[in-house]
Amino acid sequence: MNEADRLRDEFLREIREAASLDALEAIRIAALGRRGRLTELMRGLGALAPEARRNAGAALNAAKDEITTALAEAGERLGRAARAAQLAGERADVTLPVQAGEPGRIHPISQTIDEIIAIFGEMGFVVAEGPHIEEDFYNFTALNIPPEHPARQEHDTFYLPPRPAHRSNREATLGATGDSSRLVLRTHTSPVQIRTMLAQKPPLRIIVPGRTFRADHDATHSPMFHQVEGLVVDRTTHMGHLKGCLIEFCRAFFDIDDLPVRFRPSYFPFTEPSAEVDIGCSRRGGELQIGSGGDWLEILGSGMVHPQVLKNCGIDPAEYQGFAFGMGIERVAMLKYGIPDLRTFYDSDLRWLRYYGFLPLDIPSPVRGPLTGASPGGAA
Ligand code: DAH
């Protein structure tokens, strides 16, 4: 056996036995590096006679190829094993118990939504949802807010770019401003009223929590915020039901049995008559306190569903009537839990969340739990 074959066998054995990528690299250097054993032999070829040089050269090249291939294959195998070992080491055991002293917290927005659902759930409402990206038709037109209606200006709408496929359609049939398929980020949860009435037959009793969007940003406005919408449609629904339902809600939510509630005439395009709902409060000493203090604080918009809105959804207003309401979730959460700045809701600051957040197992219920005697979780 010549020198080249002997070295080849030796290195192939070492490669087979190599236990790590580092060991493999050491073998590569020892064999093929600048001072490697095969490299040295290659260098010595020049001193041989032509015939011997050809034979030895061919054997050395063959040995070099075999070693290079073996190194690549072993590298692949060891690399895979190293990655598998690393993944196994990093695997999280999700069944481990939560570390005592640092449980996760429910965000006040989620908590408030759960509380509102629990109260209306007791009254027989079911949760409905709709898309954040909404068609102009559902967000405005069907709610009795046609293209030129001034209420559109107040909504600071985020419009999505026109969809090319729909533009020609619009130009052909509706004129420049009337594309009812134009997409918007919904400016309120009210379009879910429309979607529900088009999809289901009365009687209806829905509660709709969700995200809403307006191009507005300061200490009391965020471009993304949350609303909750309510809708009841039935043959005998009247203003008395609206009032009873919302008084009951306000008192349950703020957990004050004799909380004063006032209905103040107002205007919304989709309700007639419309009323804003105020709750009693006190502002003595510059400090706001919910309850009977002689002052008033607006928290809700409401009204009897406009006959045109019912008609837009294929419901006969001579047969059915409805009431609806809408409310900002951040606003009532701030009032209930004494959170001073709207912007902090979205900062994802863990210290804030530990203070204002809620323990996961404090599930809201009108019978038991945080609805009675609720306090920010971290303050306990
Ligand atoms: N959509 C209204 C807004 O965003 C809130 C509202 C008012 C909803 C009255 C209603 C309602 O359903 O009846 O300002």
Task: Please name the defining characteristics of this protein.
380 residues; alpha+beta; 8-stranded mixed beta sheet; two-stranded antiparallel sheet; 13 helices; elongated; disordered C terminus; binds 3,4-dihydroxyphenylalanine
What does it look like?
This protein is α+β, with helices and mostly antiparallel strands and 380 residues long. 41% of the residues lie in helices and 18% in strands. It contains 13 helices and ten strands. The protein has helices at residues 3-17, 21-32, 37-44, 50-90, 108-122, 136-139, 151-154, 164-173, 191-199, 239-254, 307-312, 329-337, 350-356; strands at residues 126-127, 133-135, 183-185, 204-213, 224-234, 261-268, 271-282, 289-290, 295-305, 321-328. The strands form two sheets. Strands 1, 4, 5, 6, 7, 8, 9 and 10 form an eight-stranded mixed sheet that branches. Strands 2-3 form a two-stranded antiparallel sheet. The chain is elongated and about 115 Å long. The N and C termini lie far apart (84 Å). 32% of the residues are buried. It binds 3,4-dihydroxyphenylalanine.
